Amino acid sequence: MNGIELRIKGKVQGVGFRPFVWLLANKYGLHGDVNNDGQGVLIRLLEPTKQQLQQFLHDLHNKLPPLALITDIQQHEKRWENPPHFDGFEIRESENNAMDTQIVPDAATCPACLQDLFDPTNRRYHYPFTNCTHCGPRFTIIKAIPYDRKNTSMANFSLCPECAAEYKNPADRRFHAQPNACAVCGPHIWLQDQNHRLANSEAALKQSAHLLREGKIIAVKGIGGFHLACDARDFNAVLNLRVRKHRLSKPLAVMVPSLTFLQNLSDDEIRLLTSVTAPIVLLEKSKVPNLAENIAPHLNEIGVMLPSNPLQHLLLRETAIPLVMTSANPSGEPPVLDNENALKKLAALADFYLCHNRDILQRADDSLVRAAFDGPEILRRARGYVPDETVLNTQNQRNILAFGSDLKNTFCLLKQNKAVVSQHIGDTANELVQQQLENNIALFSHIYQFTPDIIAVDAHQGYFSSKIGKALAKKLGRPYVEILHHHAHIAAVLAEHHCCDKTIGIALDGIGMGENRQLWGGECLLVNGVQCRHLGGLPAVALPGGDLAATQPWRNWLAHLQQFVPHWREIATQSCADLPWQTLAAAIEGKVNSPLISSTGRLFDAVAYGLGITAEKLSWEGEAACHLEALAAQSPLAKNKSTLDITVKMPIKENKLDLAVFWQSWLAYEGSKEDKAFAFHYALAQGFATLARKHAEKHNCRTIVLSGGVMHNQLLRRLLKENLTEFKVLSGHQYPMGDGGLSLGQAAIAAQFAETMRTE
Questions:
Q1: Quick one: which of 50, 67, 606, 667 is 20 to 30 A from 161 by CA?
Q2: What is the Cα–Cα distance from 63 to 61, expressed in whole angstroms?
Q3: Cα gap 213→241, rounded to integer Å
Q4: Which domains, and CATH codes, for the chain?
Q5: Could you please report the per-residue DSSP string of 192-217?
Q6: How far is the C-alpha of 112 from the C-alpha of 589, rounded, in Å?
Q7: Mean pLDDT of the residues in the chain
Q8: How many helices (H) and strands (E) does the chain have?
């Protein structure tokens, strides 16, 4: 007896794909079956007619469930000597074979479940864990493949008869929705203080809302971790949170009950806010009225999100006010995931705890995005986006594990041409983050049944991520490749755009290891596959005190003055009067703990301090640069650049931007603080555009790539693109241009190395 087998790969597990297939098969009178396995989904059709098969395949491609995605369909004719008995069309049990399918990210509550949540006649009315195959937790509750209930944190919750009936009914949207549950059989919530449980279920929500409106701080357990919540309109409540969290000025994310709390949104901003990923979206402050002024001091943007899960919808509906919703973690540590640790670690931060008993197996921070002038831009990639895979333009046949960087760490698994970048792990200076990195690599390797053939690490030998990568390579007897930090930045953007062009890369950030152990951070590079050649960029300047200079901008101000301004002592006497500048100047001159670095980030710090817009010590990474960008955007020159006094410039001298000319012209420029901030951005963009153009013409390149964390500065990126319109200019949008995207670039370069090794 003849038949057809269809092998389907992509996002086809846990998204309602099998019942979708079942409905289609019944619609067209087909006999056969469908099942999940490690390879994806297998469909068997017994003697379909040509017309039946065509109609079935057409709908299979064009009428997918909301979260499903087909990346590959393989069709094979099949002859069965002992044909299976197909009485109609069936859904078979899952099989656990070698895994070659995608895990689906967590998805925001769908409209149907939202309707159930607020329908008093529905049995899931106000149930904080309602979900279906179109929404709900996926990645954060999984511990193994295939994505079945027994392999999730729902394994301990036995379905009640009504939920079991939904789970088994292919015509129901909750068919095989693994987190399916209700108030009878599923997880539940409660409110407690440090010692006692105060309320359960709906009473817990009502009391939490009352406490928030009174100015209290509540630790709320979510999908991928705990949040700290307070009234975003209440200056004192926000200040109290800042003091407790030692986060005196870093911006705080805000959750609003609905779009009606916002104004003048663009279509792109609405799409991002209401998407299934439900990220934090950076919005202009004017679009988010009635918030306390200390939510995002000195900045032009506020991070805003809508509720992404039923518990948040219920809490925000009950409070009917905007809430601060920031990660719940002691300073420097990863966010808390479980109830016990919340009570221990958040005792000094939270007044109360809104908990639940569904375990979080995978940490997933809120993703951070922006509807930028050149398209949506991801600054932190986590919940809602991970673990989506990216198909790279490579013939790689190896398994490659890339360890990323020590700041904003992510890692990447590259299996043939499919790359999976982890969620944002964080800064590995903290031992708990280090442990989380190692645990997540082990877990991803288990879930994806992945053993690396090649390991890629950052060229900085002092990085924790590089050390554990090399240690793993030694343990497994596998080769490792060290990759220059800024080469990986450029390669990540090229990988995202599936571009293999010879490229001029402009890589701007704080610090990264360059060739010959030089510290880079403002470079123009020629990148051609595995080849990376340094062409020029910012000159090297002393980094007085080493790592201290990243948090004390006056050190960078002094270093730049001393190197580039003849009358620097006179300026330092005024601007650093209460600081030990003379001692530091002597250390710079004597080259004591003052390594040289060509850092754009430290240049931003120096300019910000010179303008008097930043303190002697920063309270968060990038603070000075963000304040400087916000100030520059307020200048009239940002809207009418033709009026700019172009005496502020950074000309090119021996392939370096001439900072002596810049500093002396900038110090002499008699504009407002806003105009001087803009003039710096303008001069920097002009300088790098001129340098890139020069080398693009010399090396016959038509593609220029912008990357590095500084490129998330919208003003600078726009000025660069406006200066380079004759070229194809690429920047990162689906992956961060900062260190969060570095592992993707490392994996792409390592794959090219592997191809080279195979052909030699």
A1: 67
A2: 6
A3: 14
A4: 2-91 (3.30.70.100), 189-368 (3.90.870.40), 387-497+737-759 (3.30.420.360), 541-731 (3.30.420.40)
A5: E-SS-EEEEHHHHHHHHHHHHHTT--
A6: 68
A7: 93
A8: 21, 31
What is the model's pLDDT at position 234?
A: 98
- Please, are residues 444 and 414 in contact by the beta-carbon 8 Å criterion? no
The label of the residue with tokens 């709390």 reads 261
List Cβ neighbours of 760 (8 Å cut-off, separation of 6 or more): none
* Helix orientation angle between 600-611 and 553-564, rounded to the nearest 10 degrees: 90
Least-confidence region, from 131-145, 164-178, 553-567, 745-759: 745-759
pLDDT beyond 50 at 760: no
Those residues whose C-beta lies under 8 Å from the C-beta of residue 628, and which sit 6 or more positions away, are: 604, 607, 608, 611, 613, 614, 677, 680
**What's the pLDDT at 657?**
98
Listed in order, strand segments (DSSP E) in 632-672 are 652-653, 656-657
pLDDT tens per residue, range 423-480: 999 999 999 999 999 999 999 998 888 999 999 999 999 999 999 999 999 999 999 9
CA distance linking residue 48 with residue 574, whole number of Å: 86
Q: Assign 737 to helix, strand or coil.
A: coil
Q: Which are the contacts of 458, defined by CB distance < 8 A and separation ≥ 6?
A: 403, 404, 405, 406, 465, 466, 482, 483, 485, 488, 512, 513, 742, 746
Q: By C-alpha distance, which of 743, 740, 738 is closest to 403? A: 743
Q: Residue 190 in contact with residue 324, Cβ under 8 Å?
A: no
Q: How far apart are CA 86 and CA 185, in angstroms?
A: 34
What is the chain's alpha carbon radius of gyration, rounded to the nearest angstrom?
Answer: 28
Q: Is the pLDDT of residue 100 over 70?
A: no
CA-to-CA distance for 553 and 315, rounded, in angstroms? Answer: 41
Enter the tokens of residue 121.
Answer: 């006649």
Please state the length of the chain: 760
**Can you give the pLDDT at residue 101?**
63
Query: What kind and span of H or E run contains 494?
Result: helix 485-496
- Whether omega before 146 lies within 30 degrees of 0, making that bond cis, reads yes
Task: Give the C-alpha separation, 624 to 614, whole Å.
Answer: 6
Q: Which residues of 133-152 are buried (b: 16+ CB within 10 A; e: fewer)?
A: bbbbbbbbbbeebbbbbebb
* 379 burial level (CB within 10 Å; 0-12, 13-18, 19+): buried
Cβ atoms of 473 and 125 closer than 8 Å: no
User: Which residue type occupies 65?
Assistant: P
Q: Is 620 helix (H, G, I), strand (E, B) or coil?
A: coil
User: How many Cα atoms sit within 13 Å of 117 on the Cβ side?
Assistant: 22
Nearest one of 112, 119, 116, 161 to 133, comparing CA atoms: 112
pLDDT at 97: 55
CA distance 600 to 265: 32
Closest CA to 333 of 442, 429, 246: 429
